[in-house]
Amino acid sequence: MGNTKDNQGALWEVFVQKKPGQPFVHCGNLHAYDKEMALQNARDLYTRRNEGTALWVVPTDAIVSSSPEDIGPFFEPANDKVYRHPTFYILPEEIKHM
Amino acid sequence: MTSKEALFKYLLRLGDTSLILAQRNAEWCGHGPFLEEDLALTNISLDLLGQSNALLTYAAQVEDKGRKEDDLAFHRTEREYYNTLITEQSNGDYGKTILRQFFCDAFNFYLFSELTKSKDQTIAAIAAKSIKEITYHLRHSSTWVERLGDGTEESHSRMQDALNELYRFTGEMFEMNEVDQILIKEGIAVDLNNIKVDWDKKIVEVLNAASLKTSANTFMQRGSRDGIHTENLGYILAEMQSLPRSMPEAKW
């Protein structure tokens, strides 16, 4: 096996949910040949120390990503729009994870 | 044989089987086919070692002669070991390792499911903890058997070779002796004839999906119930026991 040809299977991105109701958070990636293997590998690699209670695996190819050049037009216009932050509302204490 | 002696031997049988399979799988550590699978098999090895630790700790308590789990693991010889023959078979290629694991996982799945109902509370508790691990092991190994058996021409032929070599060691997993008779009567042990029905069904289902065939009239090897083993076990114990035997006081 050389460095030129990777035969460890496709890349998958792994998302872990810590507790029910919380968002799935990206935690890394792995190699696998099929969906079931990807899910099992995610379990073995990323949840062996109690990191979560649910998993998503997504083929890396299926993820559409913004590029570094997009930072200006995509994100900077939001810098001076404080009125978009819900800081003017008082949230009831029962609401979690906002 | 008293029921205490029977319980001790039964626990050695269960604990040794987990221990030797854990040791065999640990040989793959750092040599797996790729990183993810290397870690998966090492996880499984550690699960098995944990199960063995619990079972041998209890065995030492039952024996009540001042020995501890480490004395049982590291200071018994081949003829005093009762692990099933299949667990000590060589790793071979990854297909053979996975098929060996699958046969053992399927057996452990049905055995430990039943042991959760054992009248011996310690065994029931160990089984309740272990069955979750074993359920995952079975899912892992059975999907790999299907993937490799039904994969490429080469992976299929390697799996078929592994099956031809390993199937003859599956018969004695279900063998029962005086130990079982005594403990079944007390509601502690499981009647392995019942397990065999479920095991056969599972094996047929997965081997069919994997396009693998067992040959009819396989002559089944036996011996582990009497402490008689294949030549493999001596080498395993030599490696596993060399450190604690040469340096009995060694600590992590």
Concise overview:
The complex is a heterodimer of chains A (98) and B (252). Chain A is built from two helices and three strands, in the order ββαβα. With 98 residues, chain A is α+β, with helices and mostly antiparallel strands.
Strand neighbour order, sheet with most strands of chain A: 2-1-3
Strand element count of chain B: 0
- Largest chain interface and its two residue counts? A-B, 15 and 12 residues
Could you give a short account of the major beta sheet of chain A? 3 strands, antiparallel
Shape of chain B: globular
- Summed over residues and divided by their number, the pLDDT of chain B gives a mean of 97
Helix content of chain B: 55-70%
Mean pLDDT of chain A: 88
Distance between the termini of chain B: 38 Å
Low-confidence stretches of chain B: none
**Structure class of chain A:** alpha+beta
Beta-strand portion of chain A reads 15-25%
**Which sheet architecture does the biggest sheet of chain B show?**
none
Low-confidence stretches of chain A: none
Number of helices of chain B: 10
Helix and strand pattern of chain B: HHHHHHHHHH
Morphology of chain A: flat
Number of beta strands of chain A = 3
Please tag this protein with its features.
heterodimer; A: about 100 residues; alpha+beta; 3 strands; about 25% strand; B: about 250 residues; mainly alpha; 10 helices
If you had to describe this structure to a student in words, what would you say it looks like?
The complex is a heterodimer of chains A (98) and B (252). Chain A has helices spanning 35-46, 71-75, and strands at residues 10-17, 24-32, 54-59. Chain A is of the alpha+beta class and 98 residues long. A 3-stranded antiparallel sheet of chain A has the order 2-1-3, covered by helices on one side. Chain B is an all-alpha fold and 252 residues long. Chain B is built from 10 helices and no strands. The mean pLDDT of chain B is 97. Chain A binds chain B through residues 8-9, 30-34, 36-37, 40-41, 43-45, 48, and chain B through 34-37, 39-40, 43, 136, 139-140, 143, 147.
